Amino acid sequence: MPGSLEPLDLRVQIPYHFMCPISLELMRDPVTLHTGQTYDRASIESWVATGNTTCPVTRTPLSDFTLVPNHTLRRFIQDWCVANRSLGIERIPTPKQSADTNLVRSLLIQASSESNRAHSRLSALRRLKGLARESDKNRSVFSSLNAEEVLSNIIFSGIGSDFPELNQEALALLVIFPLTDSECTSVASDGVRVAFLSHLLRHSSIEVRVNSAALIETVVSGTRFPELRAQVCNVDEIFEGVIEIMKKPIATYPRALKVGVKALFALCLVTQTRHKAVSAGAAETLIDRLTDFEKCDAERALATVELLCRVPEGCSAFAAHALTVPLLVNIILKISERATEYAVGALLSVCSASEESQKDVVAAGVLTQLLLLVQSICTDRAKRKAQLLLKLLRDSWPEDSIGNSDDFYCNEVVIRSY
């Protein structure tokens, strides 16, 4: 048990028949194979997933991979946990069973049948959404029934209908699932579908707008064909809608910023439309929200900043923002290796395009940060970018730094080696 394994060795002995033969740990969800052997579900599923076709204990070939829940043993284990609560043992929760396949199939039919009343279809979608959010097991049941295709048809077959709640509820359910290449291509290649998603980015409901942005990100990221990705990014108001989502206060709708920056990054991977992102205000929004991101999202935001700095419009927009330089300089060596690399790369682009920015960067104290970076354990790309930036800024350093600073001496050694 989490947090209880160490004291168990000293203070209480787990009954042998409560331990999984594979993990040798207390079983949380015991299941029995047709061989009669019982294992913890997670352990035996991992065993089978790695290509094993025999029972781990008996070595008997598995002709049937059905896992039968051992409810009796689980209740015994739970009773034992309760009896040993004073020793720090927590009661294992009763595992939820997967959604019934027949129920999910029936609800999908009910939701997709145009002969049913709209409210009946909506009710079915809401029940499906509740099931899908419960567990990965339930989502696997959905995927086995091609639920993604059914939901996609509901979303786009009802464009312009008198009951838009159906489209919106199906959209909220579809974004829970990953889409296949063919499903992404199907949406990206259909201008009407893409235009509809763009239209939803201006919906009065923030949830609908965020779900639309999430599906756009999935489609752009999952489409293999560059021309289709560019086609999606060229649709009017795509960038404006995504960037507007990112401006939503975190306290009001926390998911908006996370989904927004993920979608913006995917869109900015398309080189030929980056200028559209800049025109829509991406540079200002990214810098304004930079301190609000969690680690993973901060890395994605900084990667987007570096991508946009590769176009002249982007360099100009970032250079014009008063907080760009101090924020990027401060990020170096603070968040993660990736974040540092992206921040230095963005500064290198901005300084290469503007002498005024070079002075600002030096004034912000980048010299010390870069010298620490090139002597640290970080990625080769980050060091290379730092060394290039040091060389570019050499003429902008104040004279007293050149004459008296030990840092400058170290820097001269670095530059001469490149």
From TrEMBL:
Q: Which Pfam families match?
A: ARM_PUB, U-box
**What are the entry keywords?**
Transferase, Ubl conjugation pathway
Catalytic reactions of this protein: S-ubiquitinyl-[E2 ubiquitin-conjugating enzyme]-L-cysteine + [acceptor protein]-L-lysine = [E2 ubiquitin-conjugating enzyme]-L-cysteine + N(6)-ubiquitinyl-[acceptor protein]-L-lysine
What's the top EC group for this one? transferase
Look up the record and give one Gene Ontology term from the biological process aspect: protein ubiquitination
Quick one: which pathway? Protein modification; protein ubiquitination
**This protein's superkingdom?**
Eukaryota
Q: Which residues form the U-box domain?
A: 13-87
Task: Cite a single GO MF annotation.
Answer: ubiquitin protein ligase activity
EC numbers for this chain: 2.3.2.27
Name the job this protein performs. Functions as an E3 ubiquitin ligase.
Name of the protein in question = U-box domain-containing protein
Organism, by scientific name, is Juglans regia (English walnut)
